[in-house]
Amino acid sequence: MPGIRSFTLFLALVVFFSSCLASDSAWNGHTTPGSTKPRRFTPYYVPPGTKSYDSSSPLLRYSGHWKELFSSAYVQKTLRTTSHPRSSMTFSFTGTGIEWFGNMDKRHGLANVYLDGKLVQQVDNWSSETRQQQRLFWVFDLPVGRHTLKVVNTGEKHDNSKGTKMDVDALVVTLGNKLSSQNTVQNDVVSAEGLQQNYPASFDFAAMSTSSQWTLTQKGSTGVHAMQLAVISESHAIIIDKVEHNPLTISGHPAWAALYNLKTHAVKPLAMQSNSFCAGGTFLSNGTLINVGGNPVVEDHTAAADFGDVDGLQAVRIFEPCESEDVDDCGMFEDHSRVRMASPRWYNTVLRISDGSAMIIGGSSKGGWINNGTTNNPTLEYFPPKGIHGSNGLPIHVPFLVDTLNSNLFPIAFSLPDGTIFVAANRDAMIYDWQTNTERRLPRIPNGVRVTYPMTGTGVLLPLTPDNSFTPEILLCGGSTVDDTKPGYEISSQDPASAQCSRMVLTDEGIAAGWEVEQMPEARTMPDAVMLPTGKILIVNGAGTGISGYGNVVNQVGASNADHPVLTPVLYDPSAPAGQRFSSVGMPTSDIPRLYHSVATLTPSGDVMITGSNPNLDRSEVEYGTEYRVEWLSPPYLSADRPVIKKSPKMLGFGQSVQLQVQFPASLQGADVKVVLMDLGYVTHAVHANSRLVYLSSSLSNDQQTLSISGPSDGKLYPPGPGWLYVVTNDIPSAGVRVMVGDGKSPETDRTALANLLSQTSPDQYDDAKSGKDDGAE
Q1: Distance between CA 392 and CA 394 in Å, rounded?
Q2: Continuous segment of H or E residues that includes residue 10
Q3: CA 85 from chain center: how many Å?
Q4: Sheet with 428-433, edge to edge strand ranges
């Protein structure tokens, strides 16, 4: 049984290395001063690019009756407090943002906040628990210039409050900086030699001209940095970050997850128990979202680089379906004693497969940067656990993930219409049959281009259509040719990214023909590829030079390993002739760099939500800083008269015929009608896991009010779980409606495999030395 012996040897080596390294730090990447010392995890923080002013600063002008208090629990050990109505503090500053910090407890009341003479918010400082160094008010989108903040005690209080106190502990000013024009890439491409050159003359920008302009609008703030993003309902998206000093707070500490209202732009913080740094995620067949991987946090003590021991945390966080516009009762569930992975994973890809379960692929056993043989986790496992191939719930060795070292984290993966799995990592690709545990290696990606972290490109499973019997075709775009065996001091933020897109039909004939190579108008690393209901692909975000990560290479910009943000999106039409597939006609240009840890997704309304960017260990306000602003890229079809789905079923069974009640504007009467079923994906690190578009068979009634559609044939064509239906006429889609594909049941649980996983593994714990608390005084 050589396979079993080699698997046993592999597990033994994992245990050996884990025990040898157990005393090491979990983080082997760049650290900044103070980032390795655990401390009270309060909202007060002074990021690079900001300046703190203590309550005792002479620049803060107090009016009315105030007292000065002293305690080690306060910023600089001092605090000003008042209970008197109309007592105020006024502060003038130059910058683009300001934060006000103070105490909250049962004796605090209401305060009015004025900016530049205008009342902007009433703040309730009451809390059922005593909390220090709390962010009471913040704003980050002020125009560059001189501003004045004034806070006034109203003398009024919360119904449950026992007093009307108002405090000033500190103010933090965001100084603000502008993106320098020399560090942007517009309509040039960075060649392999690092030179700027015009795009080839054969490229036809006019071939795909649009009837009207795209529009780009900045509106909303995520409150927590958007490292991970998924649409969960018609009204909300979930945003997940790592533990850091985000401005949104929950339970007295910075939040690292939130629910974003796509309609009102309101943000609700979401409680998380463990650190979701560089985790992956997917929906299951019953609509449950799982978030997988990360490292532990000890209550209110943490540090930016304090991510637990080398074993990491085998976290599986569970977010039950939450479809109501009222998300007050929606939350993340964690119980590491009963629900966890078998092995630690950072930078793992999570994919819903044909039976509705999750395949968890690869990753690293500890944080850092470029993977290596010591930290590599060249295995996959399932949630819920499976007992297949003798694994009994434990990880299954994947030779492909050994052969693709070093740049093989966050592999690009898609479930194919025959149930097998396409996986790309580094310069290689394979088709994995999970039911037989066999690999079929594919031709190497051409020209030495690497497409996975940290040489990050992006991938798309092109639209699946009955016109060609749902033949799968893969597109990989961007990345880098940087040698992944080089140390960081031999890699530069100015190394050119790749403009290459590689496309392959995944049939015997297509594989034999190899990759078809195309060139994007601009080179990009860390791009996002967003499938639109029209079947076209929007490529957005990314950098023209450098690679993913922060603090690792030479010529860093701030801490960023990348530079030259690419600010103009490009549209790719997979059905157009070669040489005519890319267009930036009508595309707006952003002024917000979207580099490492940026995300983008299609929304139910049909526009594209773009947010994130944080090439920093903790929040930063210097180039390239932590980005909370949200942009909305609207295709021309949003300004057109659109089809409307007036009524639709909640469930769509495999092969089931159902009816949609529809309405078409007069301008689209009699036009060709298509129905697409889409998975909007789970987005992080340029991986759009599960992103998918399937054309469904449909017929329109004579009165053009009823569309009869047939569900996908089985879970291989569309893995069971949530989806979105769009009706498309003349390249103009309706808004999407959510539907559960399949029977809505949970994926099968192998109780024996689960019991074995729990008996053979244990949840990781912090060192006891890190669990002490600071005693604060009011």
Answers
A1: 6
A2: helix 2-20
A3: 44
A4: 412-415, 421-425, 428-433, 438-441
SS (H, E, C) 579-644: CCCEECCCCCCCCCCCCCCEEEEECCCCCEEEEECCCCCCCCCCCCCCCCEEEEEECHHHHCCCCE
Contact 252, 42 (CB under 8 A): yes
Cα separation values, 701 from 484, 649, 725, Å = 57, 17, 18
Cα–Cα distance, 419 to 269 (Å, whole number): 37
Radius of gyration (C-alpha) of the chain in whole angstroms: 26
> What is the torsion angle, in degrees rounded to the nearest 10, for the CA atoms of residue 58, residue 59, residue 60 and residue 62?
60
Long-range contacts of 693-696 (CB under 8 A, 24+ apart): 693/463, 693/464, 693/531, 693/533, 693/535, 694/463, 694/464, 694/465, 694/470, 694/718, 695/463, 695/464, 695/465, 695/466, 695/467
Give the whole-angstrom CA distance, residue 226 versus residue 541: 14
The verdict on whether omega for the bond into residue 756 sits within 30 degrees of 0, i.e. cis, is no
Q: What are the φ and ψ backbone dihedral angles of 723, each rounded to 5 degrees?
A: -150, 175
- DSSP class of residue 715? T
> Going edge to edge, which strands form the sheet with 516-519?
457-461, 473-478, 500-505, 516-519
> Does residue 15 register a pLDDT over 60?
no
pTM: 0.90
Is 640:705 a contact under the CB 8 Å cutoff? no
Instruction: Give me the phi and psi of 749, to 5 degrees please.
Output: -110, 125
Mean pLDDT rounded to a whole number for the chain: 88
Selection from 370, 644, 392 nearest residue 482 by Cα = 370
DSSP letter at 771?
-
β-strand partners of 289: 283, 319
CA-based torsion, 377, 378, 383, 388: positive or negative: negative
CA distances from 6 to 167, 281, 341, 364, 547 (A): 64, 30, 21, 20, 35
Cis, peptide link before residue 384, omega less than 30° from 0: yes
* Amino acid (one-letter) located at 147: H
Spatial separation of the C-alpha atoms in residues 704 and 670, rounded to whole Å? 8
pLDDT in tens, 215-258: 999 999 999 999 999 999 999 999 999 988 999 999 998 999 99
What the block records as the tokens of 678 is 């889409």
Three-class SS of residue 12? helix
Residue 184 reports pLDDT greater than 80: no
Say if residues 231 and 601 touch (Cβ distance below 8 Å): yes
Neighbours of 34 (CB within 10 A): 11
| Sign of the torsion angle spanned by Cα atoms 640, 644, 650, 656 | negative
Residue 180 pLDDT greater than 80, yes or no: no
Q: How far apart are the first and last CA of the chain?
A: 67
What span, in angstroms and rounded, lies between the C-alpha atoms of 411 and 357?
Answer: 18
Integer Cα distance of 544 and 194 in angstroms: 10
Of 398, 409, 424, give the one whose Cα is nearest residue 506: 424
Tell me the two tokens of residue 506: 């995944």
pLDDT digits (tens, 9 = 90+) for 664-709: 999 888 789 999 999 999 999 999 999 999 999 999 999 999 999 9
**Cα–Cα distance between 187 and 521 in angstroms, integer?**
7
SS3 759: helix
Domains contained in the chain, CATH given: 50-174 (2.60.120.260), 181-639 (2.130.10.80), 644-741 (2.60.40.10)
Q: How far apart are CA 345 and CA 364, in angstroms?
A: 5
